[in-house]
Amino acid sequence: MNIAFFFPIGSGFKELERTGQGKRFEQAELSHYIKSFDKITLFSYIKESRIFPKKVTLLGNAKNIHRFIYTFLMPFIHTKKIKEADILRGSQLTSTIPCIVSKIIFGKKFVFNHAYDHAEFSKIKGDMLTALILNLWEKAAIRLADGVIAANPVLTRRVKRVNKNTIYLPNGVDLSLFKFKGRKSSKITRLLYVGRLEKQKNLENFLLAVKQLNKGHIEVLIIGEGSQKAKLKKLAKSLASKVVFLPFIENKRLLDYYYRADIFVLASLAEGSPKVMLEAQATGLPVVVNESFARNIVKNSRTGIFCRSDPKSIAYALEKLVENTRLRETIAQNARKEIEKSFDIKKIMQKEINFLKKTAYV
Questions:
Q1: Which of 41, 270, 300, 329 has the most CB atoms less than 10 A away?
Q2: Are the C-beta atoms of 284 and 332 separated by less than 8 Å?
Q3: Segment holding 58, helix H or strand E
Q4: Quick one: pLDDT at residue 127?
């Protein structure tokens, strides 16, 4: 059985490497495809080439065509490869246009991963036109798809009302890599955030919460890039706590930073199924998370501390863990058990592969 995999619009393998996710994609996802399919073709929007294992072919945007044009032309430029595929797999909502065109022209079946509410993220940025377009795009993609993989229970319930062939599969963790490690008590409490530096991530309120705590023995490490970096750096200078900013780090190297940290913070206004939070929990990091999205992932207060979006609530949640190392240990152990039970990447990928095969041959 052959599969065609489409990156999100404008993206490709180079983009995954830039954000530190290249190795994760190869080891946690692509390796499972290689074991289960005869041929895997990766469709990128970037002018790139790369040597993968024999079964895998990466097709880049050789002529550097604009992404919005290329997304419609892809099925015509790569007709042979698309026709060879038994199932098309879109990596996100924004990867579905070539899948939809291929279904209409060639009768190909497609499945896509619906990781989060794209329209909601655009609304947070204040881009209402893009939110409207994405909302209409989502409705069309869900109706036309032969199957949908939804990353959290709320999305799953919503999508199932339109497309019955929908399966809930969250992001997973490579448990052989992200191993549990207890933390030694220290005079310094290190807070960690990993991800994009955008408004949706609510990092300004996170730093304001740290400012409210006003404790010199707290250090903050923020790993990532984004449009709010300069603004956040300026705010960080007003804190009593030390704040360090680092660029994106390759996924495997993140382990060192997870192990050095004491608390992982994700106070985002919205999320889908955040990989970095799950990986942090797997390594034994207790988490402070915004309850607006986290109640779908962090089952209860046994596996994480909930907060709201405002600085006061975030500060209150942080203080609970900063002042109580025993509570941190208990939450870390409970969270690891939950990760092993529900977020093992091997089990999740096997479920996905079974779903793809079943959808292809129904």
A1: 41
A2: yes
A3: strand 56-59
A4: 83
pTM of the full structure: 0.90
Buried-exposed string 205-230: b where 16+ CB fall within 10 A, e elsewhere: bbbbbbbbbeeeebbbbbbbbeebbe
CATH match of 2-172+344-361 with 3.40.50.2000: yes
C-alpha 166/C-alpha 151 separation (Å) is: 10
pLDDT in tens, 132-179: 998 999 999 999 999 999 988 888 999 999 999 999 999 999 999 999
pLDDT in tens, 259-285: 999 999 999 988 878 899 999 999 999
User: Is residue 13 within 8 Å of 58, Cβ to Cβ?
Assistant: yes
Tokens, residue 195: 């991800």
| The two three-digit tokens of residue 208, written as one number | 């304001």
Q: Name the CATH architecture for the domain at 189-342.
A: 3-Layer(aba) Sandwich (3.40)
Distance in angstroms (rounded) separating the CA atoms of residues 72 and 286 = 44
